[in-house]
Specification:
Helix 3 packs across helix 7 (about 125-145) and helix 7 crosses helix 11 (about 255-275). The chain has a six-stranded parallel sheet with strand order 8-7-6-9-10-11. The protein starts with 5 loop residues before the first helix and ends in a 10-residue tail after the last helix. It is an alpha/beta fold. It is built from eleven helices and eleven strands. The structure holds N~5~-D-lysyl-L-ornithine. N~5~-D-lysyl-L-ornithine binds near residues 1, 2, 58, 109 and 127. N~5~-D-lysyl-L-ornithine binds near residues 2 and 158.
Length: about 280
């Protein structure tokens, strides 16, 4: 799993409007809309999303705090309409602070897990799962539909697996490849999934690519044409720089925005399913 670096997210909070506009140009839908689609909610979740207070708690465990990480999460959640704050204390003291200040939800990440918790509804949203669904929903919006189409998924970690399952749930067939074949074992002989034996075989199977590896240049200029569409949540970006230069407008990529926005909506859906559905209060 890639650990985000300060450089990956530097200035991201100030470019959210631009990112939202680019996403809308690419897919016809904005950040919050795609995150809502990814969470499978077709109604209006804005009420609880806007009402609940989120405490973002920096964690010093493992490799420690990433400069600007919590503030970037705060900027993304604020951008989609949530009320939130970064605690002044990290770790357990930060959790106490968040709860004392009235947070109904907590956002926190260590080196292995990035999660958002709902303290009232007792549910959680995982960054890997939500990033997979968020980018899959963005690729689907860009493609119009994936029903009856084949999508190539590169990387069978939490993000690739979650995206692959989303695509199949939306009527697609998935060809999945991971350089560690054992990571694909769960997909062998599963209806609508095919495990490719090589990267070349996977890339030849489709013109819709989901790049969820941690490698560079898995998709190069020769793999792309005017018809190719790519969703690339992987860090570092798995699309080569010459391919980006020529076909960048066909590549959906960001380091954190879609994942965090998708977590927020996923959590509202889960809370609603547990009875914390206050959407009826919207006039
Ligand atoms: O609070 C902080 O500043 C740090 N503890 C944040 C750590 C962020 N974690 C990562 O970047 C890891 N790669 C985990 C992300 C899980 C993605 N599925």
């Amino acid at each position: 799993m890639t650990r985000l670096k300060e450089d990956d997210i530097a200035g991201l909070g100030r470019r959210l409007e631009l990112h939202d506009r680019q996403l809308r140009q690419q897919t016809g839908r904005g950040l919050a809309e795609i995150a809502a689609l990814a969470a499978g909610y077709r109604g209006n979740l804005q009420y609880r999303l806007k009402k609940v207070l989120v405490g973002i708690v920096p964690l010093t465990t493992g490799e420690g705090i990433i400069g600007g990480f919590s503030e970037t999460v705060e900027a993304i959640l604020s951008y989609i309409g949530m009320k939130c704050f970064v605690t002044s204390m990290p770790d357990a003291a930060g959790m106490v602070e968040a709860v004392e200040r009235g947070a109904g939800q907590i956002f926190m990440a260590d080196d292995l897990t990035c999660t958002m918790l709902d303290l009232q509804a007792h549910c959680s949203a995982d960054n890997g799962v939500c990033t997979g669904r968020g980018f899959a929903a963005a690729l689907e919006a860009r493609a119009g539909s994936v029903r009856g189409r084949t999508v190539t998924v590169l990387g069978a970690g939490p993000v690739g697996t979650s995206a692959a399952e989303y695509f199949v749930s939306r009527g697609a067939d998935v060809v999945i490849y991971d350089k560690m074949p054992e990571k694909c074992s769960q997909f062998v002989e599963k209806p609508h999934f095919k495990v490719a034996g090589s990267l070349a075989e996977a890339l030849a199977a489709s013109s819709l690519y989901f790049e969820a590896t941690t490698a560079r240049d898995t998709i190069t200029l020769q793999d792309m044409s005017a018809d190719t569409l790519v969703a690339a949540p992987g860090i570092p970006l798995g699309v080569s720089s010459d391919a980006m230069e020529r076909f960048g407008s066909q590549v959906i990529h960001d380091p954190l925005e879609l994942g965090v926005a998708s977590m927020a909506f996923d959590l509202q859906v889960k809370a609603a399913l547990k009875g914390f559905d206050e959407t009826r209060k919207i006039s």
